[in-house]
Amino acid sequence: MENKNNIALSVRDLKTFFYTNNRCNKAVNGVSFDVEKGKTLCIVGESGCGKSVTAATIMQLLPTLSRIEEGEIKFQKDDKIINIEKLEKNGKEMREIRGSDIAMIFQDPMTALNPVYTVGFQISENLKYHTNLNKKEIREKCISLLNDMGIPLPEKRVDEYPHSYSGGMRQRAMIAMAMACNPKILIADEPTTALDVTIQAQIFELMDKLKKENDTAIILITHDMGVVAELADNVAVMYMGNIVEAGTADDVLRRPTHPYTKALLESVPVLGRGKNQDINPIKGSTPDPYNRPIGCQFAPRCNWQTESCDVMPEITQINETHQVRCHKYEQFFEKYK
Amino acid sequence: MKKEILKLRGVKVHFPVQAGVFNRVVGHVLAVDGVDLDIFRGEVLGLAGESGCGKTTLGKAILRLVEPTDGEVKYISQDDDETELTSLEKKDMDPFRKKLQIVFQDPHSSLNPSFTIFGSLQDPLKKFGIKSKEERRKIIGDLLEAVNMRREYMDRYPHEFSGGQRQRIGIVRALCLEPELIVCDEAVSALDVSIQAQVLKLLMQLKKEKNLTYLFITHDLSVTEYLCDRIAVMYLGRIVELCVSEDLYNNTLHPYSEALISAIPVADLDKQTKRIVLEGDVPSPVNPPKGCPFHPRCPKATDICKTEVPTLKKYSTNGNEHYASCHLIDLPEIT
Question: Is residue A3's pLDDT more than 60?
């Protein structure tokens, strides 16, 4: 935050709404965060909290029934600052950024790859549009990318179709595709949710390596606090379209100050704590997005709810890095002193 | 004294692979390949492993939802009567269906969308002799209340419920015949973390109230460790390690369990360990590797692992029985 040049992407007060059946779903309702170069920002939350929509908004991949209402997405390209939200969705500039400067890994590698084209073809598409390499060089680059991802026999595998890849290999092919043009920002939307833990470990190792070698900024979207603890430098916790708490991994995991973050951490059993650990479920379930609580969105499920929670709390900066959206954060934060 | 409720001996489930014009059988998927397992009354036994290791197939084979190719599944009643389930005729199986129930993984596809909850749930009660509708409504209503849902919900349709609520309805469905053993097949995996905790707590509470035994199938070792008394780890259709849940974490014997545990992200900054990254993927169960099935990915593999299949041997850690199948364990074997 101190050094402006370190920030690869800065999102300010972003609002993305969906319009269906004459109703409006405020999927992302005022989200602000910064992504630093060579750092991983984890966005955590339950299903329906707006974390994937945030990612789709940055990539301008929103479906037709939705639009960016307000806010700024500032992307630093070389020395220029580009306002992504002002670009046309399918315009030349956006297409130039998408795939080369900002790339994305999707959740489900089974559906994100096209089954009728070879993996090599799908990776080379990216290179064809964004670089000046000739056909032969593109093929070599594809092979070297697959090789970097640890796919055995890349010369042969490059001509195979996605169905002959296993789940973990498909996800690695997706990462190869995303990394083809050395993006400055990599958005990974639940990249390992569909994979087994041993394969997940391989993918994480790979992402760590990419971050260190290429200084890529990574936005990792997940629902698993364990993943956050392993990979995150910075964390943003989302609930019902808002960031309720943000800070470094240390801030959020060691000194959780928002009741929702605390509840999330307490509701998962942690390996190694044995049978006697206490897990506390969060009462109730996430509210209907068309019928939201007034004021603080978490209030109906919160154990510390008071009348003051009928007003939406503002973001409070606790210290340089740690911010929280709760009226009563002080009583939690006191304890850590 | 611990009493068994189920005894599995050499259970195998092989699925034929067919190919060509005449659908000739060209091979077999060895989904479950020789499993010996005792399940004791009143315990929670966890069955963990990666996808494709055969854990769901084993769960279904116990209930004969999938017919085992070979082996025995013995049910031992409270009065010590043993019955071999796999050799029974379909209709003789009925009284045991009442005792053994299952909760399925996906709460969205396991309820019929065109029936109300009562409509779906009353069938087993009808079949097992509860003739009056009032009585059936009472039983289902009581169980719905037991899982913290309202009695009136039984006249609603599945689409009106959220994932967590549907999973609770799935639990009611399993409970309505007062079973002794429930196979929970990834019962909480499809749920959000906050809801997952609710269902876990509920399962534990029901176990205490109704004296149940669970076979808890899951890929999530943190959940197994929290919930289970004993854990069995499966790899490619076989059990590779079976022990008390604390020992699996503190005294891991099998290198696969070790890698699996180290790969699980832990939501605690003070407990971060070095990941053991396994090379490659799980081999195909159609054509499993010779010798120890884990040797191509095992960081410790030696020559003997490539040729000889290790058997499940009994060891002792912390005074508890600890079974593992690996050539490289230093502990003395107990016979």
Answer: no
Judge whether A237 is closer than 8 Å to chain B, CB to CB: no
Question: Looking at the complex, does the CB of residue A166 fall below 8 Å from at least one CB of chain B?
Answer: yes
Q: How many angstroms separate the CA atoms of B118 and A68, rounded?
A: 44
pTM for this model (two decimals): 0.84
* Å between B67 CA and nearest CA of chain A: 27
pLDDT at position A1 over 60: no
Selecting from A166, A197, A281 the residue whose C-beta is nearest the C-beta of B263 gives A197
Three-state SS string over B134-151 comes to HHHHHHHHHHHHHCCCCH
Task: For residues B185 and A158, give the distance between their C-alpha atoms in angstroms, rounded to a whole number.
Answer: 37
Q: Is B249–A272 a contact, with Cβ atoms under 8 angstroms apart?
A: yes
* Strand partners for A17: A67
Is B149 an interface residue toward A (CB < 8 Å)?
A: no
Please list the helix, strand and coil fractions of chain A in percent, rounded to the nearest 5, in that order: 35, 25, 40
Mutate to test the interface with A, among B277, B279, B294 (most CBs of A within 10 A): B277
Q: What percent of chain B has pLDDT over 90?
A: 37
> What does the alpha-carbon distance between residue A167 and residue A136 come to, in Å, rounded to a whole number?
28
CA distance B61 to chain A (A): 23
Q: Is A272–B225 a contact, with Cβ atoms under 8 angstroms apart?
A: yes
Residues of B within 8 A of A225 (CB-CB) are 193, 267
Question: Tens digit of pLDDT for each residue in A138-187?
Answer: 999 999 999 888 888 889 899 999 988 888 888 889 988 988 888 999 99
Among B170, B175, B196, smallest CA distance to B104 is for: B170
Task: For chain B, say whether A40 makes contact (Cβ under 8 Å).
Answer: no
Size of the A and B interface in Cβ pairs below 8 Å: 141
What is the arithmetic mean of pLDDT over A252-261?
Answer: 90
Pinpoint the alpha helices (H) of A14-118. Answer: 51-59, 92-97, 109-112
What is the per-residue pLDDT for B165?
87
Q: Closest partner residue to A277 among B192, B226, B261, by Cβ? A: B226
Task: Specify the amino acid at residue A278.
Answer: D
Residues in chain A: 337
In sign, the C-alpha dihedral spanning A217, A223, A225, A226 is negative
Q: Which residues from chain B sit within 8 angstroms of residue A248, using beta carbons?
A: none
pLDDT band at A217 (very low <50, low <70, confident <90, very high): very high
**Could you tell me which residues come within 8 angstroms of residue A67 by beta carbon, excluding any fewer than 6 positions away?**
A16, A17, A19
pLDDT bucket at B1, cuts 50 / 70 / 90: low
pLDDT of A2: 45
A85: its two tokens? 């939200």
ipTM: 0.78
Closest residue of chain B to A260, computed from CA coordinates:
B194
Three-class secondary structure assignment of A258-308: CHHHHHHHHHCCCCCCCCCCCCCCCCCCCCCCCCCCCCCCCHHHCCCCCHH
Give DSSP secondary structure letters for B305-318.
Answer: HHH-PPP-EEEEET
The predicted model gives A120-144 an average pLDDT of 92
How do residues A89-108 score in pLDDT, each as one tens digit?
888 999 989 988 999 998 88
